[in-house]
Write a structure and sequence with these properties.
By secondary structure, the protein is an alpha/beta fold. Helices cover about 40% and strands about 25% of the residues. Strands 3-2-1-4-5-6-7 form a 7-stranded mixed sheet, with helices on both faces.
């Protein structure tokens, strides 16, 4: 099973996914799709010998560019690991229930356009939440609204936003590769 990881930033979640599947018997990260040429995740992918496809707004919205590129690498499943663009309808149609995202909050709270990274953790802090966590969900045409597959929580009462981020990231690193593996082993 060939998977593509879509990422936009430093790629710490992508790194954990690369590590998990580097020697896996039937799951392989076959492609990294990235929309920022300076993103550190590209170096991470190269360290694992994973091909990188750079996209811009134009090529990403062009199904005649992206779908053939994914097909060339025999991509059967897509993992969004810190990829911030809305996924176009043609890609969701091509990969129905074969695309997952991780969100750094307990959806449906703190989801939607603009709710990523520090924005989420600041909102959790401002609202004096006692717990936060992660949500792994299927991707549809609306930010963070696909069916939730898995959630994990952590206590965050009294923590600053940066500390909340650290606690949530621990959950991401621990659970995301494991949930992907379970989904693809069914």
């Amino acid at each position: 099973m060939n998977i593509a990881v879509f990422a936009s930033g430093s790629g710490s979640n992508a790194q954990k996914i690369f590590e998990r599947f580097e020697q896996h018997s039937h799951i392989k990260v076959a492609l990294l799709v990235c929309n920022k040429p300076e993103a550190y995740v590209i170096d991470r992918a190269k360290n694992f010998g994973i091909p990188v496809l750079l996209v811009d707004k134009s090529s990403f919205s062009d199904e005649n560019f992206l779908l053939p590129a994914l097909k060339k690498h025999n991509i059967e499943f897509i993992v969004l690991a810190g990829f911030l663009w809305l996924i176009p309808a043609y890609l969701i149609k091509a990969y129905p229930n074969k695309m997952v995202n991780i969100h750094p909050a307990l959806l449906p709270k703190y989801g939607g356009k603009g709710m990523h990274g520090a924005h989420v953790h600041n909102a959790v802090y401002e609202n004096k939440e006692k717990e936060s966590g992660i949500s792994i969900h299927f991707v549809n045409e609306i930010y963070d609204s696909g069916e939730v597959i898995f959630q994990a929580t952590c206590l965050v009462e009294g923590l600053q936003p940066e500390e909340i981020a650290n606690e949530v990231l621990k959950l991401e690193h621990h659970h995301f590769p494991e949930v992907i593996e379970k989904l693809l082993s069914k």
